[in-house]
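User: What would this chain look like folded?
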Amino acid sequence: MTKISKISKPKIDATTVATVWHSMQTICWEMRHLVDRTAQNYLIGQLHDLSVGIWGADGATIAVPVGLPVQFLGTTFAVQDLVKKFEGNIHPGDVFLTNDPYHGGHNCHLPDWGFFRPIFYKGELLFFTLCRGHQMDTGGSFPGGYFPNGYDIHAEGICIPPTKVWDRGRERTDVVDLILNNVRFPDGVRIDLQAMIGATVMCEKRLTALLDAYGKGTVLACVDEMLKRTERAVREEIRKIPDGVYKAEAATDDDGTVLDEQVWVRVEITVKGDEMTLDFSESDGQRKGFINSVYAATYGNAIAAAILYLDPALADYHNQGTMSAIKVVAPSGSVTNCQYPHTVGASPVNVGNQIMESVVEALSKAVPHRAVAAWGKHRGDYVFAVDPRNGERYVRTSFDYDGSGGAAWGFDGYQGSSSFTALGAAHRGNVEEMEVRIPWRMLKYEFVADFTGAGRWRGGPGIHWEAVNEGSAGQMATGSSDGDEVMGCGVVGGLPSPVCRTYLRRDGEDIRVKPHRLVPVHEGDILIKHSSGGGGAGNPAERDPAMVLEDVENELVSVQAARDVYKVVIDARTLQIDQAATAALRSRK
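Assistant: Here's the prediction, encoded as structure tokens.
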């Protein structure tokens, strides 16, 4: 039988607690840095579509300082299922791989492959570490996992339940070869898998050194203390939110199969004393299309959105103690808790975003002084074609086309941040890197005036992105996008984000391309993306006129919008504020 340690309680001092805690945080950052330096996948190595962390042997979340909430905040369930499935067969040097949303993996969608390493100390299983990242391909009907009309989840790629791929320090080559034989770019994927496994090895070495330095009892006691401290702090923060029931809803354009029919996520948040319940029971039922979210993914996104309303000083300390005070309800068979074999490929972008948007809109009603607006919609796509420079197939995907973050009370939205569900953990690449990797030449990449949610604090600016296809003809799936019909919410009087648009310019004609479609791409086509910024917070007419003037000078707000939306009169020639005219305009009801 595998020995799982029980936490002992020696006396510990504040300095030791802080040292052990921040050592674990640093280990996680080092894990990501290792993968950054060694992975070949643009999504992982350049854009950081990657999550790492440390969990207890019982599944308790311990250290999760960096990553995408949907990839790792629900990992408690995966660790608990893994321990149950492999009871008596977990050893030092083992590595388990899973990407399955349904069968013990508790993953958000198939492209995110997670490597779990058990960490033993003197024969006892103390921790698990996870490195999970978005692979460049996972098999299925179309590269990347965002195929808009799969028959069931098996059309989206190879489904890997928790599977031992390293056994006591030795690779199970037959198992790994079987998996890699079911992806389109096995050599590249193998490099990434080795990079991710290497990160778990490094974590094991660092934790072992920490245990050697302080002793098992002290380290476990420090972890226990930090979990208790976080739970006390989070419960105290929840007590500051007025008791009550707060509701909101958000929609995605469609489900990719039944087109042009919006799918709704609805949340009812109950705050009572020091506990919060996020209830998604009124959301739409699971859909045939690929926007469905499994419970673990819903849990991760919902928890992450709720955390935004707690004291920012807690940002580096969230762990299982946070989750203990927040309950997430999502009934089986709903779009927020879909069941096998429903497709889930676009869930991180579509229903995942709507989960977060509905939570922030509802809690903004409860805590206006910490209001958070929705971010710009994700505007990704996957192009599958041939690069004439080397004659090889490629798949292009990126977050580079996304708009910007939504405003928060007291702050404008981040400029150029990625999808809401990444919360800034996933980054943009750069033009040179993208052009080296794929045969698309950049033509335009700039912020756009008046293309964000206005407010006392405005959303980050929208993006105009253009590139020309200098490769072969191919196919483009727009599954990883949203926002042509629905808008991200503004809060506390702020305006919502504008709708987005994507076009293919062919022979001088702009052909509109909606989300969740599969369309042909020709040689010489120009892809054009208009991606909006985030929503605003607060009444636009209350924005500091000096800030409005600065936005006009930076060409983020037009003189006309300054007058019509922000009620600030600016001379277009001199770029000076007409104070009297502005005061008169703002005094009108």
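The CA atoms of residues 285 and 334 lie 4 Å apart. If you want, I can go into more detail on any region.
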